[in-house]
């Protein structure tokens, strides 16, 4: 029990097979109806729950129609509209700046390349990957959020610590056709079972191949700390 497979490739394949069966319908949980709304929702979701973001954007997307609306909004007004979101002042600045660039440099359309997206204020590789995957149907990498970061280390798929290095380390190990779904599967499992502080190893479908299982091991490989 709690013994990973011999190679990271085999471990990744088995983990994915089991999670596909456990969460067959998992997908992005942010609500949006176009690429700009997707971009803004993902920007707002940094260090904030998707549930909270969806509550805020339900009204936000009614008030602001396009990039010009956001770019021309007063900083204080936009910040007030998203004030229940973490770091709302900074995020309001990023949204206004990003939308200004979208108008001036991209004819009002959300760009479709990694370099152009990450040139926008407040847009890192994680956000750009989400927008490319769900807005443009372009899969260039793996979205590494806190759940992917935790589970990939906990399951012995990587020993890297930063999201960027984890993504680079996972890409040769995980089949490219699974890059997009890995994120959703890990998020679903992280929320339902493999939580940060108290994972429910007793009911986990991955327990027997998990080198961090509390039932068999004394150390959480995600944090490097004892259970």
UniProtKB/TrEMBL annotation:
Cofactor(s) listed in the protein's UniProt record: [4Fe-4S] cluster
Keyword terms: 4Fe-4S, DNA damage, DNA repair, DNA-binding, Endonuclease, Glycosidase, Hydrolase, Iron, Iron-sulfur, Lyase, Metal-binding, Nuclease
Entry's cofactor comment: Binds 1 [4Fe-4S] cluster.
The protein's Enzyme Commission number: 4.2.99.18
Reaction catalyzed: 2'-deoxyribonucleotide-(2'-deoxyribose 5'-phosphate)-2'-deoxyribonucleotide-DNA = a 3'-end 2'-deoxyribonucleotide-(2,3-dehydro-2,3-deoxyribose 5'-phosphate)-DNA + a 5'-end 5'-phospho-2'-deoxyribonucleoside-DNA + H(+); Hydrolyzes mismatched double-stranded DNA and polynucleotides, releasing free thymine
HhH-GPD domain span: 44-192
One example of a Gene Ontology biological process annotation: base-excision repair, AP site formation
Classification via PANTHER family: A/G-SPECIFIC ADENINE GLYCOSYLASE/ENDONUCLEASE III, ENDONUCLEASE III
Family: Belongs to the Nth/MutY family.
Full protein name: Endonuclease III
């Amino acid at each position: 029990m709690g013994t990973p497979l011999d190679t990271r490739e085999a471990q990744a394949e088995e983990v994915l097979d089991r999670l596909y069966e456990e969460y067959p319908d998992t997908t992005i949980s942010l609500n949006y109806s176009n690429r700009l709304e997707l971009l803004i929702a993902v920007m707002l979701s940094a260090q904030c729950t998707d549930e909270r973001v969806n509550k805020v954007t339900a009204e936000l997307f009614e008030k602001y129609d396009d990039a010009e609306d956001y770019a021309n909004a007063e900083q204080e007004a936009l910040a007030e509209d998203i004030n229940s979101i973490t770091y709302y002042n900074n995020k309001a600045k990023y949204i206004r700046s990003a939308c200004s660039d979208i108008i001036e440099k991209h004819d009002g359309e959300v760009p479709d390349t990694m370099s152009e997206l990450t040139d926008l204020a407040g847009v890192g590789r994680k956000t750009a990957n989400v927008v490319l995957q769900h807005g443009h149907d372009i899969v260039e990498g793996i979205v590494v959020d806190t759940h992917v970061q935790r589970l990939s280390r906990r399951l012995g798929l990587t020993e890297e610590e930063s999201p960027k290095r984890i993504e680079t380390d996972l890409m040769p190990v995980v089949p490219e056709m699974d890059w997009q779904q890995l994120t959703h599967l890990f998020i679903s499992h992280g929320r339902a079972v493999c939580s940060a502080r108290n994972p429910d190893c007793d009911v986990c479908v991955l327990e027997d191949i998990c080198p961090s299982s509390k039932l068999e091991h004394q150390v959480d490989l995600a944090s490097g700390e004892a259970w």
